Records
---
Amino acid sequence: MNPDAAREAHKTIVGSTDLYANVIDAAGQYDAKVDSSANSSLAAHILNAVTVGVNAFVYEAVGEDESLYDYEEDVRVLAAALALHDTNKFVREAYDVDVDGNTSETFDWYFDPEPADDGTDREGDPFGIEEFLGEGYRDDLQYLVQRTELGENSAELRGLDTEFRGLERYCRIGDSTASVALKQGSDGVYDQLSTLIGSDDVQRIEFTQLEQPILNDTLLGMAKEVVAGETGDRTYGVVIGSSSDSIVYLGDPVERSELKEIIAGHIPTKINTEFEFDCKLGWNSFDYDILGEIALPPDRKEKNIREAAEDLLLSGSGRDDSFESIPDDFAEYLPVLIKAVYEDGWKEYPTEKLTNAFNEVYDSIEGGKSTKGQKVKVYFLAHLCKNHEGYKSDLKILREEVQPALYEDLEPEMDAIGTVVDRFFDGRIAPDLGSKDEMCFLCGGQTDTKYQKGLSGIYRTQEYSRRVPPHAKYKSICEVCNLEYALLSDICERHDVSTNNSLEIAYFYFDDFLGDVRVRSNRVGNIVQGDGDELDDPEVASSLFQPQYFIQPMYVLDENHRMAVVRQVMEAARESGMKVVVGRPFTRFESADAVFADEETTRPQELLGLDEAERFGPLPSFVQDDRTDSHLRRALQLFKIMSMVGQDANMSNPYLQLDRDTFHSIADFAVVNHDHAVTLSDLEQYFETYHTEALMDMKTVAERGIDLFGKQFDSKYKKTKIFREALDAFLSGKNQQMDDDRLIEYVESQVYAAADREDYAGHVTTEEAAAFVAAIHEYLVENDLYDLKKLSDWENALVNSYYYAYEQSL
Ligand SMILES: [Zn+2]
């Protein structure tokens, strides 16, 4: 076992090439399986297979005293073969050709696809295999791919002499493990690898998944580092992958208590380097906040207070002027000054000179006692900053007196990180419920700390109480949730999301089980509301693979804005090939079967079927099935139509105007609000794909109408006149409770009479009238509109959808 080899291998294939980004780009929008109860994107499955296969190869093949460079070609060939192991599925989805297996024909489609139906050329090799590996390997790759799946027909290349024959084993390990992972998660991965490699080498560690998703991901990440030898003194093995509560690796077993001890020792520094913590300092107020609650070296905390105070002085907040810079030989005293002036509210200072200065500043402020009392703090600070040369020895004395007390303040009363580690290793899923007064309003754990954190949306809004009803002005929060809050605030800041608004989290994840990629990347992509090109960046692609789930905070202003955000989340999911669950912060991440799941869904979403998507795209055409699974492609097309129409009409809330996904309601919405609804190709495609029958039926109605009434070219009123006459007759007949036969006869006669009145040439026949009415009757029955109430509710919408079909038929 070679501890550096896995890291080097990942650097070779993930960190320094576009392979992962290309696969995500080309195959992220397709489904891996027909069965959507165990689904991920095709890209996620492919990359899991690549990762697991390469990790297993590295574990077995690279000796302790060897370098990965001796195997670099093998690693690249293996990764390329695994990237291509589902080429038949990819080709079917991308080019809609029904190829059977990974044959030469299939490979030709992948490397040199035929032009599209409209004659445009298609670019070959969308995963960039030859750029990654070099040319001249196609036969070797096909040889390996044909031996990856056991059922595959491999007769075609039986005679081929390839030097990469030894890699067959790892192709099978990669693909079969990734397939099992889809259905059976980390348990299945463990069993599968035990069978293929031997149970002595396969290890699985289980944890208790924390209620706090960011902390959970951080601890899980550190556990993988310990196993891989990146943290601690020894290497236990090569990590194969993880789920949110377990790790599977190849190597030696690790003692649980030992692992816990190593993590407990290193996690504070890790949290401290990966996240920024802030105290809360305003011109008139100060609170240690999270700084007082986590165990960090005191000088690190002092630095944080110093920076906050520098920012305060630089901003000029609370005063009339600001500083351009803060001299270092004054700034070093800021932490003790904040403690004395803000935290303790001193009026008397250790030297007379300081006390006098404080009083002079106080007297110089205009206004009443309370104004003076408030302003004096920041004014005193500014005075000392401006004249610090004259206070050198006084400030030194002040520091000697105040610093011990400051350090005492910063010493945490509770060890939040220790509690987290305990819960992760030994915890129960639901912590002990305290009595109402001492229950954490976020996780329900026991606590007696009360917090008031001002503006933050989480503390302000009562809706965040998931487990405990809000019963007091001050909410109790446990030290673990408070720490999670500090991490969340930092993530929000990096994503440019304000915590003052109502917050939700989109959890993006490839699958429950994620093949482990040990590449360090510091970039945080903002994949919602971000730059659309970001996912093509290999660094962002690798940073998506680093955590178990990618946490994307998002703020929500109102229902329409939420719909717009959901649209972006769905777009990001399709682009990244990741599944997504939208939920609250401070809730344990729960994966879903569906590709898109929304735990906070709204009524407008439900009405339009935008609350869930079971798949990335539609079921393939070769699947004979009556199922009509929901999928992202349809949802995004509907969003696009709403947005196009909304823009044309200058709507402020375009996503709330439509309440049904039916042909006549969408046609009505478009015709009423868009000047050129009938020529919108997106709309036409949507109807043709998802409302085929209703569109056809209404077109039949329109054609019968044209037969009867002739083509009308002037007003919309004229074009729809005969259809309105017919609907009015249906309504009036229904009103008189006519039975069906009589009703139809009645409508026919009314329609005939109306057409005849305007028919100057005298061509109208009763047969034409009957055919027109029969077509309308069929549409109404098929679309469940054939009763008085529905008919009168939908009359205008039907007229507009008739108009749409009429124009299409001309
Ligand atoms: Zn809590």
---
Amino acid sequence: MLSADAIVIGSGQGGVPLAVDLARAGKRVVLFERGRLGGSCVNYGCTPSKAFLAAAHAAGRARLAAALGIHADVRVDFQAVMDRVRGIRDRFTAGVVSRLESAGVQVVHGEAAFKDAHSVVAAGVVVEAPLVVINTGTNPLLPEIAGLAGVPLLTNLNLFELTALPRRLVVLGGGYIGLEFGQGMARLGSEVHIVHRGAWLLNSEESEVGDVLAEAFFRDGIAVHLDTQVREVQYIDGVYHLMLSSGEVLEAEGVIVATGRRPNTEMLNAPAAGIALDDEGYVQIDAQFRTSAPGVYAIGDVAKQPAFTHVSWEDYRRLIDILDGGSRTRDDRVLGYAVYTEPQVGRVGLTLAEAEALGLRARAVTLPMGHIARAIEWGHDLGFYRLVVEEGSERILGATLVGYEAGELVHVLLAHMQAGSTWRVLEQSVHIHPTYAESLPSLARLLV
Ligand SMILES: Cc1cc2nc3c(=O)[nH]c(=O)nc-3n(C[C@H](O)[C@H](O)[C@H](O)COP(=O)(O)OP(=O)(O)OC[C@H]3O[C@@H](n4cnc5c(N)ncnc54)[C@H](O)[C@@H]3O)c2cc1C
């Protein structure tokens, strides 16, 4: 039995900096990791997917440049694309390894399980500590479809190992992971079908967002099947045959499953520690990341926090304060996220419907992309900017930006919201012409 001051289970986006900070503060820290150090973002998520999309969007932009009078002959070296992706990923992973090493964090490679609330075992090593932090993230959730179990599928866990581009590809799921993968593969040359059971793409957002993405995907030659489910899958001689609820049958050399996530708690033996899970298996936490077991905390995706790297990382910052006796909670932050399709989606705060559901007196204004000088000049006609504000207080409650690099631009609004500023401050700002950002004061002026 090894004795430590703190145990971190999972080297996710919050767990690594937390372990490093605690170790640098002189604590004896043991971190358990069953897979590659650095968690989903570095190894199977943000880093490789965005490196992959950099190549895909370069190809897509080159093809779409025909509308500007530029005709490119696009040839994709898929092997080189994926070698670059893996190279970047491996560099990031190595960075995590060296951060942990130089801080003196002891890493145990193995799948951790609780023996009781303060002792954890993996690979035959038992460690006990007064503080335990769970940061075990999520894994792909495979849907229950006849014939799916046992056939070789692509998910975010193995997609970046591909060495050849599937000629025909079906993506199951029209959430952001499915859309990024689907558009990326199409732009690299696959014939892509996206099968989505929602009524519009990205149906966690307003329908107009999905409509814009559907039009963009149509221009990329992607077939989108909405309100559709896969009834059965057959895998014969390397070809998938997917029977859709519409009666259509799709054939493909590859199937990507991106239909949801499930928390990595099934191997944790949470009951032995008295840690309560919800019906889906997520760790239940209070506003200060405490689980039902005293001294045991959970951060990031496994605690059903909004599933983004910046959230898990911010969880760590808040938890460090709480462990130091501070009073921060997880509830008071302005949250945004981006979808790295083209056009991008940049979101922050509430939609109009969400604001109204909270009982706020809210109002929304929208500026279509066709009214934006920069967009016209650059040939970007798809998208819109929408601002949601509170009547009376004039607070900015949220924004949805769909357009070129909208994931960057949304930070203007995020900063206003964080600073507690109002739409009038935005309206009075003088932004540079001709930029996309110039349209944000114009958007606010629609409220005058
Ligand atoms: C394809 C894809 C693209 C994404 N793109 C973005 C993006 O662009 N921007 C963004 O903000 N977010 C993105 N995300 C989400 C992001 O990756 C996660 O929200 C982020 O990694 C936070 O996860 P985490 O810290 O909760 O844990 P994770 O990063 O998931 O890490 C959990 C770690 O715990 C380990 N583990 C699990 N169980 C055990 C156990 N019992 N014992 C030991 N170790 C264990 C796992 O192996 C893993 O390494 C993406 C996700 C995917 C799948």
